[in-house]
Amino acid sequence: MRLLVAALASELQAFPESLEGFDRLVTGPGKLKAAYGLTRALDAAAYEEIVVVGTAGGVDPELPGGVYEITAAIQHDVQDLDGVIGQHVSLPPRVATGRDGLVIATGDSFVDDVAVVERIRGLGGVLVDMETYAYVWVADQFDVPIRVLRAISDTAQDGATTVWDETVAACSIQLRDRIGDEYGV
Length: 185
Fold this sequence. Notes:
- One of its GO terms (cellular component) is cytosol.
- Keywords: Glycosidase, Hydrolase.
- The chain is an alpha/beta fold.
- It has a single domain (1-181), classed as Rossmann fold (3-Layer(aba) Sandwich), CATH 3.40.50.1580.
- Strands 3-7-6-4-8 form a 5-stranded mixed barrel.
- It contains 4 helices and 8 strands; from the N terminus they run ββαββββαβαβα.
- Helix 2 (114-123) links the parallel strand 6 (102-106) and strand 7 (127-129).
- Helix 1 runs parallel beside helix 3.
């Protein structure tokens, strides 16, 4: 059995309530809710794989819209005791999925600002979201393989919040199609 995970129910709106071979989990947005929700699910049952789906802001202007596999996650909203942005005081600077793909920067606020986008690019992020780092870190603690698929919903700059509200349904369809193609469900 696999666990299909999303932060928000709206990201799963194109998916049927029941998907053969998958349990479903909606954690809520942000790193804390993501970590808490996934930890509870992995404490309650064993899964062969975690499959995360959801939206992300694109911070690379050359990257076309679509669904992307995530290879690693960094945190863009932390700093260590020396003031180094992207370095947490006790967590690794980067967590990996073990798959080929893009680097996503995770933070606890919805990015809608050019200056933040530039900082994320400087850290090596190509996409931005609010949960992936937590999901990957928790999966690693439980030694469960994880796959993260993110659909680009916006450019994480001025007006991104409004754009996300308008594009989440289309992103959900793209994600559903990808899961259907790759898992035969």
